[in-house]
Amino acid sequence: MIIAVDFDGTIVEHRYPHIGKEIPFAIVTLKQLQAEHHQLILWTVREGKLLDEAVEFCRERGLEFYAVNSNYPEEQTKETPSTPCRKLKADLFIDDRNVGGLPDWGAVYEMVTHRWSYERYLQGLQGNEEKRKTSFWKRLISSK
Ligand SMILES: [Mg+2]
């Protein structure tokens, strides 16, 4: 799938124009999704130097996006800084402004890989106290 991912408030805590701390398991989840052949697009309001800093922040942690604020690397989506951003042709958007907010990254991973809605994900937690209390990544780490 093509997955568009927001930066501020999604990959890192919202400290725009500064870069907040990484939200737990954001980068490892995105790298795992790439390893499973999902195509990731960074989709952010950041431009210029602030955008470069976000891209570099991810690159330093081993996360390279297929494209940044565009559908593919060569696409020119903005003619000038004031031109509105075009909508991406993504299958999914991961954004802290989702209805209901951003689930933890373990939930994001499970929903993407199983193609579950958030409602379906939550149904899977019912009656399973261990799953309800710990995220996918924490359970994975503790099982090793
Ligand atoms: Mg955001």
TrEMBL record:
- The leader peptide range reads none
* InterPro entries, sorted: HAD-like_sf, HAD_sf, Phage_SP01_Orf1
- Name of the molecule in the record: Hydrolase
